[in-house]
Write a structure and sequence with these properties.
This protein is of the alpha/beta class. The chain is built from eight helices and six strands, in the order αββαβαβββααααα. A hairpin with a 4-residue loop joins β5 and β6 (about 160-170). The termini are far apart.
Protein backbone atom coordinates (compact mmCIF):
# COMPACT_ATOMS: atom_id res chain seq x y z
CA UNK A 1 0.00 0.00 0.00
CA UNK A 2 1.12 3.57 -0.55
CA UNK A 3 1.01 6.44 1.93
CA UNK A 4 0.60 9.97 0.68
CA UNK A 5 1.09 13.17 2.66
CA UNK A 6 0.89 16.80 1.80
CA UNK A 7 4.01 18.85 1.89
CA UNK A 8 2.50 21.06 4.58
CA UNK A 9 1.85 18.06 6.79
CA UNK A 10 5.44 16.87 6.42
CA UNK A 11 6.79 20.31 7.30
CA UNK A 12 4.49 20.48 10.34
CA UNK A 13 5.70 17.05 11.50
CA UNK A 14 9.37 18.05 11.07
CA UNK A 15 8.74 21.27 13.07
CA UNK A 16 7.19 19.26 15.91
CA UNK A 17 10.21 16.94 16.00
CA UNK A 18 12.56 19.91 16.12
CA UNK A 19 10.60 21.54 18.96
CA UNK A 20 10.60 18.27 20.90
CA UNK A 21 14.40 17.98 20.62
CA UNK A 22 14.82 21.60 21.78
CA UNK A 23 12.64 20.92 24.81
CA UNK A 24 14.67 17.81 25.63
CA UNK A 25 17.94 19.76 25.34
CA UNK A 26 16.58 22.53 27.56
CA UNK A 27 15.34 20.02 30.13
CA UNK A 28 18.69 18.23 30.14
CA UNK A 29 20.50 21.58 30.55
CA UNK A 30 18.27 22.54 33.48
CA UNK A 31 18.72 19.12 35.09
CA UNK A 32 22.49 19.45 34.84
CA UNK A 33 22.35 22.77 36.71
CA UNK A 34 20.07 21.25 39.32
CA UNK A 35 22.42 18.30 39.81
CA UNK A 36 25.47 20.60 39.98
CA UNK A 37 23.72 22.80 42.56
CA UNK A 38 22.71 19.78 44.63
CA UNK A 39 26.29 18.42 44.59
CA UNK A 40 27.68 21.83 45.59
CA UNK A 41 25.25 22.28 48.50
CA UNK A 42 25.86 18.69 49.69
CA UNK A 43 29.63 19.23 49.58
CA UNK A 44 29.27 22.48 51.53
CA UNK A 45 27.17 20.80 54.21
CA UNK A 46 29.70 17.97 54.43
CA UNK A 47 32.59 20.44 54.83
CA UNK A 48 30.74 22.35 57.58
CA UNK A 49 29.88 19.11 59.39
CA UNK A 50 33.47 17.84 59.13
CA UNK A 51 34.85 21.15 60.43
CA UNK A 52 32.39 21.17 63.32
CA UNK A 53 33.25 17.56 64.16
CA UNK A 54 36.98 18.36 64.06
CA UNK A 55 36.61 21.37 66.35
CA UNK A 56 34.35 19.58 68.84
CA UNK A 57 36.43 16.42 68.66
CA UNK A 58 39.59 18.38 69.36
CA UNK A 59 37.95 20.12 72.29
CA UNK A 60 36.57 16.87 73.71
CA UNK A 61 39.84 15.03 73.34
CA UNK A 62 41.59 17.90 75.13
CA UNK A 63 39.22 17.53 78.07
CA UNK A 64 39.50 13.73 78.00
CA UNK A 65 43.33 13.81 78.26
CA UNK A 66 44.36 14.40 81.88
CA UNK A 67 42.74 17.68 82.91
CA UNK A 68 43.80 19.36 86.13
CA UNK A 69 41.30 20.71 88.63
CA UNK A 70 41.87 22.94 91.65
CA UNK A 71 39.58 22.35 94.63
CA UNK A 72 38.98 25.15 97.13
CA UNK A 73 37.93 24.41 100.71
CA UNK A 74 34.16 24.66 100.82
CA UNK A 75 32.85 27.74 102.61
CA UNK A 76 30.98 27.22 105.87
CA UNK A 77 27.67 29.14 105.94
CA UNK A 78 26.67 28.19 109.49
CA UNK A 79 28.43 28.52 112.83
CA UNK A 80 32.20 28.53 113.22
CA UNK A 81 31.89 25.19 115.02
CA UNK A 82 30.80 23.59 111.72
CA UNK A 83 33.88 24.67 109.77
CA UNK A 84 35.28 21.14 110.15
CA UNK A 85 32.33 19.88 108.06
CA UNK A 86 32.90 22.21 105.09
CA UNK A 87 36.64 21.49 105.06
CA UNK A 88 36.03 17.77 105.55
CA UNK A 89 33.58 17.53 102.64
CA UNK A 90 35.94 19.29 100.21
CA UNK A 91 38.78 16.98 101.34
CA UNK A 92 36.59 13.91 100.81
CA UNK A 93 35.65 15.08 97.32
CA UNK A 94 39.36 15.54 96.51
CA UNK A 95 40.09 12.03 97.78
CA UNK A 96 37.14 10.41 96.01
CA UNK A 97 37.72 12.00 92.58
CA UNK A 98 41.41 11.09 92.78
CA UNK A 99 40.52 7.47 93.53
CA UNK A 100 38.01 6.92 90.74
CA UNK A 101 39.73 8.79 87.86
CA UNK A 102 43.10 9.90 86.53
CA UNK A 103 42.34 13.59 86.85
CA UNK A 104 45.01 15.74 88.48
CA UNK A 105 43.66 17.28 91.71
CA UNK A 106 45.28 20.30 93.34
CA UNK A 107 43.93 21.35 96.76
CA UNK A 108 44.01 25.11 97.28
CA UNK A 109 44.23 26.67 100.74
CA UNK A 110 43.76 30.32 101.69
CA UNK A 111 46.94 32.20 102.57
CA UNK A 112 47.73 32.29 106.26
CA UNK A 113 45.58 34.84 108.01
CA UNK A 114 43.22 35.10 105.02
CA UNK A 115 39.67 33.85 105.46
CA UNK A 116 38.33 31.49 102.79
CA UNK A 117 35.77 33.29 100.64
CA UNK A 118 34.46 31.42 97.59
CA UNK A 119 32.80 34.59 96.23
CA UNK A 120 36.01 36.62 96.20
CA UNK A 121 36.97 36.54 92.51
CA UNK A 122 40.28 38.34 93.04
CA UNK A 123 41.27 35.92 95.79
CA UNK A 124 40.47 32.95 93.53
CA UNK A 125 42.47 34.38 90.61
CA UNK A 126 45.41 35.03 92.92
CA UNK A 127 45.37 31.49 94.27
CA UNK A 128 45.06 29.93 90.79
CA UNK A 129 48.13 31.74 89.46
CA UNK A 130 50.89 29.34 88.51
CA UNK A 131 48.82 26.20 89.20
CA UNK A 132 48.27 25.42 85.49
CA UNK A 133 44.79 23.97 86.03
CA UNK A 134 41.90 23.69 83.57
CA UNK A 135 39.04 23.83 86.08
CA UNK A 136 38.34 24.77 89.65
CA UNK A 137 35.73 23.54 92.10
CA UNK A 138 34.25 25.48 94.97
CA UNK A 139 31.21 25.15 97.19
CA UNK A 140 29.38 25.99 100.37
CA UNK A 141 27.94 23.87 103.18
CA UNK A 142 25.26 24.36 105.82
CA UNK A 143 24.31 22.20 108.79
CA UNK A 144 21.01 22.50 110.65
CA UNK A 145 20.38 19.73 113.18
CA UNK A 146 20.08 16.55 111.06
CA UNK A 147 19.83 18.48 107.76
CA UNK A 148 22.71 19.35 105.45
CA UNK A 149 22.91 21.58 102.41
CA UNK A 150 25.83 21.44 99.97
CA UNK A 151 26.16 23.70 96.95
CA UNK A 152 28.86 22.78 94.41
CA UNK A 153 30.13 24.79 91.42
CA UNK A 154 32.56 23.72 88.70
CA UNK A 155 34.25 26.46 86.63
CA UNK A 156 36.41 26.44 83.52
CA UNK A 157 39.51 28.55 84.19
CA UNK A 158 40.15 30.00 80.70
CA UNK A 159 36.85 31.90 80.57
CA UNK A 160 35.70 31.62 84.20
CA UNK A 161 32.51 29.95 82.95
CA UNK A 162 30.34 27.99 85.37
CA UNK A 163 29.95 24.67 83.53
CA UNK A 164 28.11 22.78 86.27
CA UNK A 165 26.50 23.47 89.62
CA UNK A 166 24.09 21.68 91.91
CA UNK A 167 22.55 22.15 95.33
CA UNK A 168 22.02 19.12 97.58
CA UNK A 169 19.47 19.68 100.33
CA UNK A 170 19.10 16.47 102.29
CA UNK A 171 19.49 14.47 105.51
CA UNK A 172 22.86 13.87 107.16
CA UNK A 173 22.62 10.16 106.38
CA UNK A 174 22.66 10.96 102.64
CA UNK A 175 26.16 12.44 102.75
CA UNK A 176 27.69 9.29 101.21
CA UNK A 177 25.36 9.18 98.20
CA UNK A 178 25.87 12.94 97.77
CA UNK A 179 29.65 12.48 97.57
CA UNK A 180 29.16 9.69 95.05
CA UNK A 181 26.87 11.83 92.91
CA UNK A 182 29.30 14.77 92.92
CA UNK A 183 32.07 12.49 91.60
CA UNK A 184 29.74 11.06 88.97
CA UNK A 185 28.54 14.46 87.74
CA UNK A 186 32.03 15.96 87.55
CA UNK A 187 33.28 12.87 85.73
CA UNK A 188 30.47 13.10 83.19
CA UNK A 189 30.96 16.82 82.64
CA UNK A 190 34.70 16.45 82.04
CA UNK A 191 34.42 13.21 80.02
CA UNK A 192 36.51 11.34 82.57
CA UNK A 193 36.88 7.59 82.57
CA UNK A 194 35.41 6.66 85.94
CA UNK A 195 36.14 3.40 87.76
CA UNK A 196 32.55 2.37 88.53
CA UNK A 197 33.59 -0.23 91.11
CA UNK A 198 35.51 2.32 93.14
CA UNK A 199 32.73 4.85 92.65
CA UNK A 200 30.20 2.41 94.14
CA UNK A 201 32.50 1.76 97.10
CA UNK A 202 32.27 5.43 98.14
CA UNK A 203 28.71 5.05 99.38
CA UNK A 204 29.34 1.51 100.68
CA UNK A 205 32.40 2.26 102.82
CA UNK A 206 30.25 3.17 105.82
CA UNK A 207 26.62 4.04 106.49
CA UNK A 208 27.30 5.48 109.94
CA UNK A 209 27.10 9.26 109.80
CA UNK A 210 28.37 9.68 113.39
CA UNK A 211 31.51 7.68 112.54
CA UNK A 212 32.03 9.78 109.41
CA UNK A 213 31.46 12.99 111.37
CA UNK A 214 34.07 11.95 113.95
CA UNK A 215 36.45 11.04 111.18
CA UNK A 216 36.32 14.44 109.45
CA UNK A 217 36.52 16.20 112.83
CA UNK A 218 39.71 14.30 113.59
CA UNK A 219 41.17 15.09 110.16
CA UNK A 220 40.31 18.75 110.59
CA UNK A 221 42.09 18.91 113.94
CA UNK A 222 45.15 17.03 112.71
CA UNK A 223 45.48 19.08 109.51
CA UNK A 224 45.04 22.33 111.37
CA UNK A 225 47.69 21.24 113.86
CA UNK A 226 50.13 20.40 111.09
CA UNK A 227 49.63 23.78 109.41
CA UNK A 228 49.34 26.03 112.46
CA UNK A 229 51.34 24.05 115.05
CA UNK A 230 48.58 24.12 117.64
CA UNK A 231 49.33 23.52 121.28
CA UNK A 232 49.55 19.71 121.72
CA UNK A 233 47.90 20.15 125.13
CA UNK A 234 44.68 21.15 123.32
CA UNK A 235 45.09 18.19 121.00
CA UNK A 236 45.45 15.86 124.00
CA UNK A 237 42.21 17.03 125.55
CA UNK A 238 40.49 16.80 122.17
CA UNK A 239 41.44 13.14 122.25
CA UNK A 240 40.05 12.85 125.79
CA UNK A 241 36.67 14.16 124.66
CA UNK A 242 36.44 11.68 121.77
CA UNK A 243 37.41 8.69 123.92
CA UNK A 244 34.39 9.39 126.13
CA UNK A 245 31.96 8.63 123.30
CA UNK A 246 32.50 4.86 123.65
CA UNK A 247 32.24 3.84 120.00
CA UNK A 248 34.87 1.96 118.05
CA UNK A 249 35.28 4.75 115.51
CA UNK A 250 35.53 7.55 118.07
CA UNK A 251 38.03 5.64 120.21
CA UNK A 252 40.16 4.91 117.15
CA UNK A 253 40.02 8.60 116.36
CA UNK A 254 41.01 9.45 119.92
CA UNK A 255 44.00 7.10 119.67
CA UNK A 256 45.14 8.81 116.47
CA UNK A 257 44.77 12.20 118.17
CA UNK A 258 46.84 10.98 121.13
CA UNK A 259 49.52 9.73 118.75
CA UNK A 260 49.61 13.12 117.04
CA UNK A 261 49.98 14.82 120.42
CA UNK A 262 52.86 12.48 121.33
CA UNK A 263 54.52 13.11 117.96
CA UNK A 264 54.47 16.84 118.66
CA UNK A 265 55.50 16.50 122.31
CA UNK A 266 56.82 13.17 123.63
CA UNK A 267 55.95 14.13 127.22
CA UNK A 268 52.41 12.97 126.47
CA UNK A 269 53.63 9.37 126.07
Amino acid sequence: SKVFAYKSEIEEWLQEQTNCKEIQKKSLFENRWAITGFVFVSALILIIFAYSFFINGTSTSHVAENPAIAVFPFENNTSEYDEYFSVGISNEIISNISRVSKIKIIPVFPDKGEKNNSNNTQQIKKQLQGLNVDYFLKGTTEKHNDKIKIYVQLFRVKDNKNIWDHEYDSQQKDIFSIQQDICKKIGKKLNLKIDQTLLSSISESTHDYIAFDNYIKGNYILNRTNRENDDPWKLYFQGESYSGEWTLESNELAISLYHEAIKIDSSFA
